Amino acid sequence: MSLKSRVRGFDLRQLEYFCAVARTGSFTKAAEDLGIAQPSLSEQIARLEQGFGAALFERLNRRVELTPLGEAILGKAQALLEDAAALPDHFERAREGVHGPLRVGAIPTILPYFLAPLLKDFTLRFPDVDLHLREGTTTELIDQLLEGMIDLAILSLPVQGAGLVMRELFRDPLFLAVPNHHPLATSEKVQLRRVSLERLLILKDGHCLRDETLAVCDRARARFTSHFEAEQFLTIFELIRAGFGVSIVPEMARSLSEGCKLIEIEPKASRRVGYVRLQRRYLSKALEAFTGYLKQATEKPRRAAAPRSAPAASLA
What we know:
Blueprint: H1 3-7, H2 12-24, H3 27-34, H4 38-52, E1 57-59, E2 64-66, H5 68-96, E3 100-106, H6 111-125, E4 129-135, H7 138-146, E5 152-157, E6 164-179, E7 189-191, E8 199-203, H8 208-219, E9 226-230, H9 233-241, E10 246-250, E11 260-266, E12 270-278, H10 285-304
């Protein structure tokens, strides 16, 4: 039997007795300090020595001295006892404070426009949260969520997957984006079938906004002459300004639309922005704080808009 197997069964009480004898140099004094009978202390020390397969103390006539093995393990035994004594304080701090790692993923059409502007205020409120960000497609983020690589994903809802909790935060209106010199640029509202002879600029396969865009076009029975696929909004807006085509873009990307006109689609279209997490009985304080912050940040503008639009429904 290996030494590791033999000593695996020792407990903190035996280490406490061992350190007490080492400190006092006497079984009798150690038993008095600990408030136990000397035979009980001697029995526990004997069991600890049996586990190590060697003596920890040399019993002399009137004193007890550590053996070389006893001296070798004394420092580690004292450190273990100190860590054990500090454990309740660590537990209380963990239970009461908001700290620790938090891994958040978001899709590219949400992270820079919605999430990024919120991060500075969150980190100021919760400086002890170690926030890590990942950007990826919906499929990538859901896989990472299920594999435990991230704690939360912010994306367009709904998504498919067992054991997931979804919460809608708000509705992000979709607009038709045209160049400023387009014949429809003076319109406040538009039906998509009126631009059916245009080139449609869309994101590449894998972006959920691509699927939402095509679904909106299908519902409107809009047929475009061709599609051009891009990796990011920046490219799409540059092409719109150049008159190369039109696109359907979300409200949150309005900051990129200089030189373009965003026109409200009839009937109104929007995407549902929210977060997804694993269904767990216990959530970390950091995750609770972050989801609470997201709800608070999105409820303020939604309440202000309440007379004009209904509040978003919650999935969880």
